């Protein structure tokens, strides 16, 4: 075989070898969402797990006039107007030209939002349901951190858009049920330390003394010990956070004899000095300032050591605190009531995997039988089937290289690639052999070019028809469209020309 004449065949063989190397694992099998016999990633359909799809809760006002206003002032005014919102529920962002956006992450009505902006004399354009692209991207990043910190391996988080323009956050977690995933994402993870104390007039006050931005590093959960009798998470504060914490507690009586250990005393609740750990607005732990920490604050040493602990009533609560402290708070809550949660059991996923393999084998035998009956020549039929199957092997290698999680829609795409691939190869064989005996390479090339124009036009039609499905987030249809388009491109650029060279070689044309 002349290498220069059959370079397409050599490229095909190299791609096959590379694909096999990518598919066959080189090391010992690992317990992941991948099959232990092949280095392939499987989606929920073939591995089992949970898929959660939900929009972010909120409304966005666009083109808001920020003239003579700043972000902090606007946020505080909106919190005061509604009364039930916290600062984390409002985000004002100044853009260019004195205009910006305001987001409210709460289940309010569009009309109430408009009335609030009018009350504050804030000119604006449309109010839309949903959040900004930056909020969605930040949400995806925080959720990925949460899954990494929680140990839920193989989780993927991405956004999708419907044909009506609504955005959804799509979370897929292999090998975990819906309640486990829901428990992790239903809380925003906003952690605060709030000082509760009586002021000089005897009125009970609450002041936020620490937020997640005041924490520099987070340690691992510690068990109860001699000095600290509860499960706790050691943290290191930022310099500004330590100074603020020290100054606020000292100036509001926490280090005085009336403040130390008063949260657990017999004093009336409104007279106690309590340090509350708050998660998403709920108090998860309340404690007094210990005498040791009080002395540290009085001496001014807390600002230099910056060491602090956040306590919880049990280990699971402490683990949850650590998770949210390390991953950060979601900028907006997921609207789980408007979303869906699907769970595929591992046993059902194994059945899907087995049936997919059986269907693939049956389709191969069916194609081989039809091709052999059509031509009756093994030297024409066998290379045709092998070439079509090579496309599937190369696509599997590509999937392994990019870490694509295969599901049933991709399997359907592989079967479609086999069918369309053999169709094109039949067109080539018919066009080449239907005109009578082939006496020279030139005649073969002319007939092959005619056939290639036909399959090229068909490929463009297929790509044009499936492109909208590949671009839009239409669930399983997208995976099917992507695999089919990749298979068509691979066929036109590599496997169809290679089959032509193989057929010419077998026909002994010179």
Overview of the structural elements:
By secondary structure, this protein is α+β, with helices and mostly antiparallel strands. The protein folds into four domains: 7-48 and 345-506, Multidrug efflux transporter AcrB transmembrane domain (Multidrug efflux transporter AcrB transmembrane fold, Up-down Bundle), CATH 1.20.1640; 49-54 and 134-188 and 333-342, Alpha-Beta Plaits, CATH 3.30.70; 59-129; 191-327, Gyrase A, domain 2 (2-Layer Sandwich). Helix content is 49%, strand content 19%. It has 15 helices and 17 strands. The chain has a four-stranded antiparallel beta sheet. Helix 13 (408-433) packs antiparallel against helix 14. The radius of gyration is 32 Å and the shape is elongated. It starts with 6 loop residues before the first helix and ends with a helix.
Distance between the termini: 11 Å
How many β-strand stretches? 17
Low-confidence stretches: 28-36
- How much helical structure, as a percent, in the residues? 40-55%
Going by helix content, strand content and strand pairing, the class is: alpha+beta
Percent strand: 15-25%
The first-level CATH class of the largest domain is given as Mainly Alpha
CATH architecture of the largest domain: Up-down Bundle
Q: Please tally the helical runs, counting DSSP H or I stretches of 4 or more residues.
A: 15
Gross morphology is elongated
Biggest pleated-sheet summary: 4 strands, antiparallel
Summed up, the domain count is: 4
Strand order of the largest sheet: 7-8-2-16
CATH superfamily of the largest domain: Multidrug efflux transporter AcrB transmembrane domain
Round the mean pLDDT to the nearest integer and report it. 84
**Nearest-angstrom radius of gyration?**
32 Å
CATH topology of the largest domain, anyone? Multidrug efflux transporter AcrB transmembrane fold
